[in-house]
Hints:
The complex is a heterotrimer. By secondary structure, chain A is mainly alpha-helical. Chain A has helices at residues 16-27, 29-46, 48-51, 83-118, 122-136, 139-150, 154-181, 184-192, 196-232, 244-253, 259-287. Helices cover 72% and strands 0% of the residues of chain A. In chain A, helix 6 (139-150) packs across helix 7 (154-181) and helix 7 packs antiparallel against helix 9. The longest helix of chain A has 37 residues, at 196-232. Chain A contains 11 helices and no strands. By secondary structure, chain B is α/β, with parallel strands linked by helices. Chain B has a domain at 11-232: P-loop containing nucleotide triphosphate hydrolases (Rossmann fold), CATH 3.40.50. The longest helix of chain B has 18 residues, at 197-214. Chain B starts with 11 loop residues before the first strand and ends in a 10-residue tail after the last strand. The radius of gyration of chain C is 21 Å and the shape is globular. The termini of chain C are far apart. The interface between B and C is large, with 47 and 53 residues.
Amino acid sequence: xxxxxxxxxxxxxxxxxxxxxxxxxxxxxxxxxxxxxxxxxxxxxxxxxxxxxxxxxxxxxxxxxxxxxxxxxxxxxxxxxxxxxxxxxxxxxxxxxxxxxxxxxxxxxxxxxxxxxxxxxxxxxxxxxxxxxxxxxxxxxxxxxxxxxxxxxxxxxxxxxxxxxxxxxxxxxxxxxxxxxxxxxxxxxxxxxxxxxxxxxxxxxxxxxxxxxxxxxxxxxxxxxxxxxxxxxxxxxxxxxxxxxxxxxxxxxxxxxxxxxxxxxxxxxxxxxxxxxxxxxxxxxxxxxxxx
Amino acid sequence: xxxxxxxxxxxxxxxxxxxxxxxxxxxxxxxxxxxxxxxxxxxxxxxxxxxxxxxxxxxxxxxxxxxxxxxxxxxxxxxxxxxxxxxxxxxxxxxxxxxxxxxxxxxxxxxxxxxxxxxxxxxxxxxxxxxxxxxxxxxxxxxxxxxxxxxxxxxxxxxxxxxxxxxxxxxxxxxxxxxxxxxxxxxxxxxxxxxxxxxxxxxxxxxxxxxxxxxxxxxxxxxxxxxxxxxxxxxxxxxxxxxxxxxxxxxxxxxxxxxxxxxxxxxxxxxxxxxxxxxxxxxxxxxxxxxxxxxxxxxxxxxxxxxxxxxxxxxxxxxxxxxxxxxxxxxxxxx
Amino acid sequence: xxxxxxxxxxxxxxxxxxxxxxxxxxxxxxxxxxxxxxxxxxxxxxxxxxxxxxxxxxxxxxxxxxxxxxxxxxxxxxxxxxxxxxxxxxxxxxxxxxxxxxxxxxxxxxxxxxxxxxxxxxxxxxxxxxxxxxxxxxxxxxxxxxxxxxxxxxxxxxxxxxxxxxxxxxxxxxxxxxxxxxxxxxxxxxxxxxxxxxxxxxxxxxxxxxxxxxxxxxxxxxxxxxxxxxxxxxxxxxxxxxxxxxxxxxxxxxxxxxxxxxxxxxxxxxxxxxxxxxxxxxxxxxxxxxxxxxxxxxxxxxxxxxxxxxxxxxxxxxxxxxxxxxxxxxxxxxxxxxxxxxxxxxxxx
Lengths: 292, 335, 349
C-alpha cells in the first residue's frame, strides 16, 4: 500500500524533469555551492584565453617569485609569469583532459557494463571479472605502468585515464541496468511486444541516466586528481604544456622560495575535486529513483 | 513538562483527546493528516480503527507510540496512558513506555524482525530493558511467551532466526515480542494483511485470546471491514483525518449512520453479492490532506450532500447506538 | 458506465465453448541451489486449463500457489519446463519471434502494483501510447494522441491526466492507466494479475465495475488471478483453485460455490469474514506447514489438510477427476463442508 506520509502532487510541465532536478539540487546548500564552484572553475579554465589577466607566456623579470599583489593576484613564478594566468591555462588542460578522459571512461564503461548486463551467463561473468582485476590494482600504480607503456602524449593520457576508470563505471552501469531489467515496467514492455534494442534504448536507458550522470561527475573528479598526481611525479603532462599537476610540481620544487607557488595549485586541485565530489554526491541523492 | 491529567474511568487504559498530527512539507503549508480525533481504549476490549489509505489511521497508530516519521509531529491533543500524557513526555520517558506499557504488532514481520538475531535474543532484549530482570529469568519468560503465542517447542525454536519460520509463525514471534512485557495497550497495525487468508483467522484468534487473558486494551488498525466486524467490539471509522463514525461494531457495520460507512459497506465485494449487477462504488477518491474539501470532507462523494455540507464541518450527532459527524446521518429504521 | 451497460447477461457474453487459450499439461520448475545439489521448486506442475472466448476464468490461490507464474507463462513472459499453450490455435512456445510479436498484440497483462508496472520517467501519454509506437509505426503522432485520449476516456480518466507522471496519480488511477495501455491494441485476452489487490476497497469496486463494463463492450477474455474468493466469484465464470502449483478444484462458478469439495476450498471459504449480520461459518482449521521448499509426498496438500494423516493422502497424488457436484477435484476424499467437519471431528488425534 502507499506510504504513510502522503506525497504532494506537483504541477506537471513539459520541461518538468530537468528543471525539477535542478531546483531540487539547488535546494541542498552543499550541492548548490559545489555546483556554483564547478561552474565557475569550468568557465574560468576553459575560457582561459578570455579571462586570464596576462598572456601565458608573458614574462616579467621585475617580479620573479613575487607574492600575491594587485598586479599578480596569485603571485608569479620563476620566470615572472603570472600564476593566476598559468593556473587558468593549466586548468584548461586539466579540465579538457579530464572531460575527454571521462568521456572515454563513460563510453567504454557503459558499453562494457550494459553488454555484461544483457548477456548474462559466462560472457557477462568474464567481462566483470576483467573489470574486477583492473580495479584491484591501485589506480596510480596502474597509471604509471600504462604511461611507461604508452608514453605521455596528451592523446595517450586521455586513453590511459579513460581505461583506468572504465571498469568501475562498467560495474555500476551493469548493476543499474540489471536493476531496471528486474523491474515490473520492463516486463510490461516485453508483454506489449517490444523487443531488445528498442526496449533498452527507449525504456531502460532513461532510467539509468541519473546514476550514470552522477557517476560521470565523480569520475571527472578522480581523473583530475590522478592526472595531477601523475603530472606531479613527472609522468603525466610534460612541459611546455602545463596542467595543475605540473604547476604543483614546479611549486613544490620551489617551495622555499615562494610558498604561494605550490599553495595555489594545490588549493585549486583540492577545491575542484571536493566540489565535483560534492556535486556528484548531491546529484546521486537527488536523482535517486527511489526518491523522485 | 510531563502533563498529568485525571483519568475519567477506571477501566480505560488509554485516552486520546483531540489528537492532531502535522507534517511539514518541503514546499507550501504543513498538512494535517490527522485533524483532531478522540477515543478511549478499555482493558479487555478490542477497538477497531478502520479507514482507507489517506484516512490517517496509520499515522494515528504511529503517534501513539511516538514513532512518527521525521517531518511529522503531534501538533495538538493528548494521549493519556495511565495519567501520563505521551504527547508531551520526553523521549527518554517515552522509550520506557514504548514496548513496555504500549506495544505494536506490525504488518510485515519480515521487515520488523532483525534477520541476524535469533528470535530469543530479540525478545530477551525487550524483557531485560523493560522488566529489569536478569538474562536467565528473561530467557525463561521468553520461552514462556513463545509458548503462549502457540509456537510449538519454544525451548528449541527460541534460538532460531526469523527466516527459519513460516509467515504465520513469524507473526506469532512478533506478537510474542509485543506482549512479553505485559503492556497495557496493544496496537495491531494491519497485522494480517501480509499473511495468507488461511493463516489470518488463527492469528486473529490468538490476539483475541491474549487480549482477554492479559486484560490488555487492544487497537486494531485495518482497512478490512470484514476483519473488523468479526474481531472488534467497537469501531471508529476514519476519513480524511477525522473519526466520522464510532460505536459498537454491530451498530456501525450493521446499521451505519454515516454516509461514508454506508457507502463503504455497499462497495465491498462480499460472497453474497449479486453477480449480475454492478457494485455500488463510491465515485471519486479520498481527498489528499492538502486538498481537503470545505465543510464536510466527504461531501463531494456523498449521495446525500446538501448545501450546508460544503459550507460547514458537521458536528457529531448521536444516532441510535453510535455517533456520526454528519449533517444528515442515515437514520433509517433498524434493518 | 451506466448500470445497464454492465448488466449485460454473462451467459450471453460467453461465446459457447469457443476456446481462445488452451493450456496443456504445463509445468514450470525452478532449480534452486547449484547444478549438483539443487532442489526443484515446482511452481506450476502439470496444469491444464481452457479459456473460452468472452469468458472470465478465475485463478485463485494464496502465495506460492503458482498462479502468477502461470499467468506469466500464458503470455510467454517465461519459458515452461514442459507442456504447451495454444493461443487461438497457434502454438505459443513454438512461435517464431515474428509470430510472437503478432501474438503479443492479442494478449496483455495488468499487474498488481500500480506504480511498479509504469515507467516512472514517462508521462501517461507516453506509457499508454507505447504499444502503438511498437506495433503501429505508420500512425502519426496526432493519430496516436487521439487514440490515447480515447483510451483514457474508456477507462474513466480525464484528458489532463495524459501529461501527468505516475507519481502524481493515485493507485487506482495508475491501475486505470495500466488498463488503458493493455487495451491500446484491442487485445483478445487480458490477464489481470491481482490487479485490484493493492488498491483501497472503494477503489476496488470502481475498477471491478470498469473491468466488467469493458469486457462487455470490447468482447474481452479475462484471466483473473487473485487470492480473494469473494472477488473471483463476482468476476469469473469458471474458477480454478490452485495450491502449490496444481489445480485442486475447478469448475463453473455456481457449481463450485454451491457445492465445493476440496478441503482447501472449504478452508478458503471459511476464512472469509462474514458480512456484518451474517453468522460466522465454522472454521476449517488448517494445520500450519513447516517452512520448506520440499514438495510433500503424495497429495501436496496433506501436511495442512485436516484429513491429511491418512495413508492414501500421504502416498498417492490425487489426479483431477469429475465429481457428482458438476466440477473437477483433485482429492481422495472430496466432500461437502458439513461432511468434512464431521469427519474431522471423528479423526483420531
